[in-house]
Specification:
The chain is of the alpha+beta class. It is built from three helices and seven strands. The chain has helices at 2-10, 34-41, 52-55, and strands spanning 18-24, 46-50, 62-68, 78-82, 88-95, 101-102, 107-108. A five-stranded antiparallel sheet has the order 2-3-1-5-4. A two-stranded antiparallel ribbon has the order 6-7. Strand 6 (101-102) and strand 7 (107-108) form a beta hairpin. The two termini are 21 Å apart. The chain binds zinc ion.
Length: 116
Amino acid sequence: MTATRKLTYSAGSQSTKQTMVDVVKGLPIQCWIEKKLGRIASLLGKPICTDKLTVRCERISYARVLIEMDITQPFPDELSIEKADGSIWEQKADFEWKPKFCMDCDQFGHNTDACE
Ligand SMILES: [Zn+2]
């Protein structure tokens, strides 16, 4: 089933596997170092690049990373990040674009909610 999904999808544009992720709301400042941000992003998929404003810390309300994801997996709204002291930080993630994928009929093009 998974293989079928992937085949169906790769018939489209490759670039549509990439989406921008905004890691928002109080990300601890020590996570802004590009390497750490990359590790956080790799929880979701393959980080492609970090937004320039994020790298230069010119916009500190949220961090923005372009990421390539396995879009057949559900998109998590939150990430668990282990901090240096071993405690877990729940970080909210916002996706600029999510593929429409229906879990009921296993097809792209509409969401499960919109399935008829
Ligand atoms: Zn459907």
